[in-house]
Amino acid sequence: QVQLVESGGGQVQPGGSLRLSCAASASGMVLSIKAMAWYRQAPGKERELVASIIRGTTNYQDSVKDRFTISRDNAKNIVHLQMNSLKAEDTAVYFCNVELWTVRGDVNSYWGQGTQVTVSS
Known about the structure:
four-stranded antiparallel β-sheet, 0% helix, seven-stranded mixed β-sheet, elongated, single chain, 121 residues, 11 strands, mainly beta
């Protein structure tokens, strides 16, 4: 049973910062992680990829480049998303996503429950 626990969401004023964290675990088992990522979904919009990290390589949606930073604590299976200079349009539910390699060599994808980020004055 894989669990993703997200934290760090909340309400901030435009220009403020938040740091999201997501910890992946599976009853003490060692996880073979292919990728970790953050997605977000605003009301009336499709879920979109915000940032991902794969073997140390990071990728960002254009709208968050130079403002957000994704990082990973490999030992603890935690992915962070540092969000700076937040804008109203960043308001959304942010979801953690983890892709895990299976013993058979396949990839399974898991989602967190989502954490609300609200940017308003």
